[in-house]
Amino acid sequence: MLETLNEVIGKINSVVWGWPMIILLLGTHVFMTFRLGFIQIKSVTKGIKLSVTKDPDAEGEVSQFGALTTALAATIGTGNIIGVGTAIALGGPGAVLWCWLSGVFGMATKYAESLIAVKYRVKTKDGRMQGGAMYALERGLNMKWLGMLFAIFGGIASFGIGCATQVNAIATVAKENFNVPPLVVGLVVAFLTAIVIFGGIKSIAKVTEKLVPFMAIFYVLGCLIILIINYDFIIPAIGAICTAAFKPSAFAGGLVGSGILMAMRFGVARGLFSNESGMGSAPIAAAAAQTRNPVRQALVSSTGTFWDTVIVCLMTGLVLVSTIMKNPTINADEIPNGGVLTSMAFSQIPYLGPIILTLGIISFAYSTVLGWAYYGERCVEYFAGSKVLVGYKILYIAVAAIAPIVALDIVWLIADTLNALMAIPNLVAILLLSNVIVAETKKYINNLDEKDDTPVPIIED
């Protein structure tokens, strides 16, 4: 029964992640990059500075940094560690390049989707900011039905990409490295999640503002140590990644390039799972930010993709490929999943390696659980109203508790499929509102301190 279900979901996943989806996603990334005049440059030069600049007089629930770290909490997760390893196992080393390129060009898409999330956001009677693809589709394009579809996909996806896969990953590394029973891990994570998410976006942002910088620096330092250990294989690893992205090839350490289609498919899919550019999730947090105009927060939000994929995922990919090439005893074809491959890489650091990896996965995954709880909550409120929110949170916590005993392969496939289904209506919003995005950018990009005095509509429940 389980094998049949896995096979069915796998076939659906193959359809939604076929060439049409890859072309739509990468096409949007490239299209918005050129339409916005390579906004990535502004994102790095101005967005990073703005991300740590407070704007308390502007309307919103949390600071720009709080919104960014909430989004980063949701995006920097197991996709950066286990997901990259899975991409290499399934798509060959070339998947790393496609994952990285999806991040570089995806910064423009993240900018665009965050801009319209802020521009078309609304406010509830009790002062909570609501925004995202569903409101952009409804208010900007009069396509509420498509906004409803996005919200439904997002609400369901939160249990998979945001909760089950993350807790499952925590349980796996805790079992392998410290022999902690999976069910115990699930119950502990569920308890810690409940403490935070019932406090809303302000509570979540307060935790992520402290957790995200720590976990990112801690993990990057671990990667740098491994790259120093593997220094003589870094250049060969880069060569393998670039070559295998375009043609089937055999490399040292049992690495085999699967060709451009497989490398693109798994690289782009894992890139989206990692940075969520084009999926429409991160803008939900961006809409809650205290920002004086949409462009200001859009620049801040786009830096999330830079940190998440351009930096962290690339480092993970180099670590894994160089490790395989350095250690001939590792047979890439026999590695069951990305988590095992990553564990092998970090075991090169004497004594501390497993600890760094375990703490990295735990902090990455737990922060994702928190961020996606907020995303799911906003999506569910959009299509079902605020009365069901307590029930949603209880169900979310219950999923966290039982996630360690769910088959990981099926969860990954379901999450991948829902990612694509979320991305489609969001990409429609970006493309159809591209003229608005360009106009807003021209209006504010050279005067980021200008305040947008357009009143935010107050909505009924």
From TrEMBL:
Pfam families: Na_Ala_symp (PF01235). The keyword Metal-binding does not apply. The keyword Hydrolase does not apply. Its main location: membrane. It is found in: Cell membrane. The chain crosses the membrane at residues 16-38, 145-167, 179-199, 211-231, 237-263, 306-325, 351-374, 394-414, 420-438. Keywords: Cell membrane, Membrane, Symport, Transmembrane, Transmembrane helix, Transport. It is a multi-pass membrane protein. PANTHER family: AGSS FAMILY TRANSPORTER, SODIUM-ALANINE, TRANSCRIPTIONAL REGULATOR, LRP FAMILY. Belongs to the alanine or glycine:cation symporter (AGCS) (TC 2.A.25) family. NCBIfam families: agcS. This is Sodium:alanine symporter family protein.
